[in-house]
Amino acid sequence: MLELDGGAGGGQQVRTALSLAAVEGRSIRVENVRAERPDPGLKAQHVAAIEAVAAATEATVEGVEEGGDAFTFEPTAPPGGEFAVDVGTAGSATLVCDALLPLAVALDEPLSVRIRGGTDVKWSPPADYLLHAKLPLLRGLGVDADVAVERRGFYPTGGGTLSLTLRPSTLSAVDLRERGPVEGLSARAVASDSLESASVAERMCETVDDRTAVPTETAAAYAETSSPGAVLTLVADCCDSRAGFGVLGERGVPSESVAERAVEAFREWRATGAAVDEHLGDQLLPWVALAGGAVRTPRVTDHVRTNAAVIRAFGYELEITETDRGAVASAPLER
Question: Are residues 234 and 104 part of one domain?
Answer without folding.
Answer: no
